[in-house]
Amino acid sequence: MVTDRKAVEPQLPEVGAEPPLTEQEFREIYAKVPRLTVEVVIQSPLGILLTKRTEGPCSGLWHIPGGTVRFGEPVVAAVERVALMELGLEIEAGPLLGYIEYPSHYLNGLDSPVGIAFLCHVDVDLRADAMSGRGWFTAPPDPMHTEQVDFLTEHGLLVADR
After folding, report:
1. Half-sphere exposure of 15 toward its Cβ, with a 13 Å CA cutoff?
2. In 3-state terms, what secondary structure has residue 28?
3. Does 3.90.550.10 match the CATH number of domain 30-154?
4. What is the enclosing helix (H) or strand (E) of 43?
5. Which SS3 state, helix, strand or coil, does residue 52 take?
6. Where are the alpha helices (DSSP H) in the chain?
7. Could you tell me which residues come within 8 angstroms of residue 54 by beta carbon, excluding any fewer than 6 positions away?
8. Contacts for 84 with CB less than 8 Å, ≥ 6 apart
9. Which backbone phi and psi does 101 adopt, to 5 degrees?
């Protein structure tokens, strides 16, 4: 029986470091099993910070910054790594909001992610505009993952008309 549930803290990779899996390895693995991700929900008085995908199958969609949890990586460490790598922000993971399932990915022949969402706050004046590929929103922009729109509106973080 395991009694010590504390995970070993992994070394965070440097920004721009090689990904742990090749594209082929990633596709082979996640074609067979669900993919655990973290969602970094950053809130400020300006709204919720969303970024726009510039590559991959979801290119052009606004989304909650997030990424895959690596093998052996504590979930909270994954939140901090993703915030640093995607946004250049050093943050502490806030409270757990819940989870997001993405049936649209599976139905479109992609993968089957399940995102664990953490609410985080920033005190810095983070630049957000169309040129930076990120923005502060109080209503969902178009286009955006329906699952994320539903999740953020259900938690009162965005106000949606759709």
Report:
1. 10
2. helix
3. no
4. strand 35-44
5. strand
6. 23-30, 75-82, 103-107, 146-154
7. 133
8. 12, 15, 90
9. -100, 150
Distances in whole angstroms, Cα of residue 145 to Cα of each of 26, 63, 67, 92, 110: 21, 7, 15, 25, 14
Residue with tokens 């990586």: 73
What tokens does 114 get?
């399940």
| φ and ψ of 118, to 5 deg | -120, 135
Phi, psi of 76, rounded to the nearest 5 degrees: -65, -40
Distances (CA, A) of 121 to 100, 132, 148: 20, 19, 18
Instruction: Name which of 112, 74, 120 is nearest 96 in CA terms.
Output: 120
For residue 90, what are its two tokens? 């050093």
Distance CA 63, CA 41 (A): 10
Q: How far apart are CA 111 and CA 114, in angstroms?
A: 10
Per-residue model confidence as pLDDT tens for the chain (162 residues): 444 444 445 555 555 567 778 888 888 888 889 999 999 999 988 899 999 988 877 888 999 999 999 988 999 999 999 999 989 889 989 999 999 999 988 888 888 899 999 999 877 767 766 667 899 999 999 999 999 999 999 999 999 775
